Amino acid sequence: MSEFFLELFSEEIPAGLQKNLREKLLENFQNFFEKKLIKSKKSFSLSTPNRLTIVFEGLDKQIKIKSEEIKGPKINTPDQALEGFIRSNKIEKKDLYENKTEKGKFYFTKQNPKH
Are residues 6 and 53 in the same domain? Predict the structure, then answer.
């Protein structure tokens, strides 16, 4: 298991703002980790007048990034629609595959998620 430790140094933070600031920072990182499917066993935040710290314990040593399936146009659509889909996703025609859904056959492509 691994740890993630982030310590931010700053000008003096008023005591009344420290708690809200460290809670908000921790919440933002928890939401980001959840979105990226990064799991941790424990997370917490600390603060002093000049520092904000967040810690995530029990992270997996290796994070798996899942590819994303993108649905394109129907199989029998005009070539212009297919070419537009290829251009907008910055792929080549060889990267497409056909898949059947409840609404018919469509073109699909797989891409790594954008970071």
Answer: yes
Cα distances (Å, whole numbers) of residue 1 to 34, 73, 88, 93, 114: 17, 43, 39, 41, 26
Q: In which domain, by residue range, is 6 found? A: 2-59
Say how far apart CA 62 and CA 52 lie, in whole Å: 26
pLDDT values of the chain reduced to their tens digit, one per residue, 115 residues: 789 999 999 999 898 899 999 999 999 999 999 888 888 999 999 999 999 999 999 998 877 777 778 888 888 888 888 888 888 888 888 888 888 888 888 888 887 766 5
